[in-house]
Every structure is written in C-alpha cells, then in structure tokens.
Design brief:
Layout: H1 2-19, E1 29-32, E2 37-39, E3 50-55, H2 60-80, E4 83-88, H3 98-105, E5 110-113, H4 118-122, E6 130-134, E7 140-145, H5 151-164
Parallel strand pairs: 3-4, 4-5
Antiparallel strand pairs: 1-2, 1-5, 3-6, 6-7
Helix pairs in contact: 2-5
Length: 170
C-alpha cells in the first residue's frame, strides 16, 4: 500500500510540473522588500529569459541554490540577458528578516515577498525550492523542485537552449 501511495504522489508531482508548462505568469499582487505592493504583471525582462525562484528563510536547499546562482549570475546575465527573481514565501512574522538575509548574501536579484501565499498558490508551488524558467513572453517553459549541487548548470543549459531557440527536451 505504501508503494502505491508513493507512486501516486510521484505521478501527481510530475503532472504538476508539466501542467504549468506553456502557461503565462499569473497576475497577482506581491510586495517589494520595501513593503510596496506590485503586480506580478510588472515582472518582465524585455524579451529575455527569466528565472523565478520560490524560497524561504528556513529552506537550506533554497538558499544553497540561490547562493550557487549568485556566484555565476553576472556571467549568465552578460551571456543571455537572464534575469533572476527570488520570491520569498515566508509569512508576515518573518518577512522582516528577508532583507537582511538578501543583503548579507549579496544576492543581486529582484526579490519579492509573498507573505499571504497568493503568488505561490497561483503558480501551484507546493514544495520549495521551486524554480520556473520563463521565455521572453513570460511563458513557463520549464520548472523544477529541489536542489542538488551542480543543478544550477543544468538550469543554465536550459536557459542557453531557450535563448538559441532550441527545444529544451533535446
């Protein structure tokens, strides 16, 4: 019975990953680190690829992934025009610690807060880290959950393929 349950959960997770593919970024309100309300429709990258990473202060793999991307982010931007957007799903009690963490890490990303989880729910994010790759039209092209060391390079390969107009499945 346990094996069937695990298989069912795995199928649901895969289904969710592919269900979002091709959808555009939903329009919901989130907060800047300064507390201003913005619409996700304002998150763009002038036709270049964009990564949106959902994370939280308590999520060690999230921070490891954002740290790893941060180390190569300048090169990635220069080569592809890529923009990374980090969306904290920390609740209202802990959002005050997000800005010091981001500044302390030296992350040069656009960082937003989703304390009520509206954006998270609209994107069907159930576990973090959850990373979305969007094309220049803000369509979801690829997504993954979890992080293992080195997977940022696999993500970047997908960015390069997207930028070159190749299929990500190749």
């Amino acid at each position: 019975m346990r094996k069937i349950f695990i298989l069912f959960i795995a199928i649901l997770a895969l289904n969710q990953l592919y269900a979002q593919r091709g959808n555009t970024l939903p329009d919901v309100e989130i907060k800047t680190m300064q507390g201003e309300t913005v619409s996700t429709s304002e998150i763009t990258n002038d036709g270049d690829p964009m990564i949106i990473s959902f994370w939280a202060l308590w999520c060690k793999p999230c921070i490891k992934e954002l740290d790893a991307i941060s180390e190569v982010y300048d090169d990635w931007q220069e080569e592809t025009g890529l923009k990374v957007v980090a969306v904290s799903i920390d609740d209202a009690r802990s959002t005050s610690r997000v800005k010091p963490t981001v500044n302390g890490k030296g992350w040069d990303y656009e960082v937003y807060l989703d304390p009520n989880g509206e954006f998270k729910r609209a994107m069907n994010v159930n576990m973090i880290p959850h990373v979305f790759l969007l094309n220049g039209d803000r369509e979801i092209i690829y997504q993954h959950t979890s992080y293992t060391e080195g997977s940022e390079y696999e993500l970047y390969e997908k960015v390069l393929k997207l930028k070159e107009g190749k299929s990500l499945d190749d």
